[in-house]
Structure to design on (232 residues):
């Protein structure tokens, strides 16, 4: 087998995953990006993921089709459930919000694990964050650690090969402002990214969902205007 250092990058089209891709590229990985059409309420993020993958010179990009909307239970997969909107970050509640998609990261990581085995990748990058995030249980370090342990028990590569599969979470202990600062140093064009849960026409961010508010604070802390709003 080739000795090339390969990684699979979960790429949503948002700020965090774009930064993860840039980090993986900086660390010398041959990057294979994967996005998911999972029944989400808009497709703009998939368009952005394609653009970001091309802009950051990923070796390959694919979109995987699954249907979490058939289960519902989330404002992101059920049009009958409104996406919560607020005026400030401080207005965001502490409870797990209705934008949580049941088992989403578990499903995404499982499919990315299958993809990693087929391209002989020993590394998976995911942009989860446990500081500036919406309280999702599948963004916590405990979840990632447990999944990585399971992955090394459940795969042919984990059983037969000496090198263990590693799930990288380079953003997990960073604030949104710190993530943006790191990405800017790596040349990430954040004007291509979309974080909004409920964008309007042409993918214009609503500016009031949890993701938009956290993103806005991150750019404000860095003293710059969000380039996606300037170009959107």
């Amino acid at each position: 087998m080739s000795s090339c250092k390969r990684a699979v990058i979960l790429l949503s089209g948002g700020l965090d995953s774009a930064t993860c891709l840039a980090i993986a590229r900086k660390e010398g990985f041959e990057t294979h990006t994967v996005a998911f059409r999972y029944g989400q309420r808009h497709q703009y993020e998939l368009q952005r993921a394609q653009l970001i993958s091309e802009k950051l010179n990923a070796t390959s990009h694919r979109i995987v089709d699954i249907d979490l909307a058939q289960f519902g239970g989330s404002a992101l997969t059920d049009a009958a459930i409104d996406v919560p909107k607020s005026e400030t970050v401080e207005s965001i509640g502490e409870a797990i919000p209705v934008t949580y998609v049941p088992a989403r990261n578990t499903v995404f990581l499982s499919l990315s694990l299958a993809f990693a085995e087929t391209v002989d990748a020993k590394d998976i990058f995911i942009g989860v964050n446990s500081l500036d995030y919406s309280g999702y249980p599948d963004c916590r370090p405990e979840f990632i650690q447990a999944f990585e342990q399971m992955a090394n028990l459940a795969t042919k590569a984990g059983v037969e090969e000496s090198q263990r599969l590693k799930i990288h979470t380079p953003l997990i202990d960073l604030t949104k402002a710190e993530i943006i600062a790191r990405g800017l140093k790596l040349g990430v064009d954040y004007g291509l990214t979309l974080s909004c849960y409920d964008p309007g026409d042409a993918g214009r961010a609503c500016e009031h969902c949890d993701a938009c508010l956290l993103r806005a604070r991150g750019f404000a802390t860095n003293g710059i205007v969000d380039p996606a709003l300037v170009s959107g």
User: Anything to note?
Assistant: The mean pLDDT is 92. The CA atoms of residues 27 and 194 lie 24 Å apart. The longest strand covers residues 30-37.
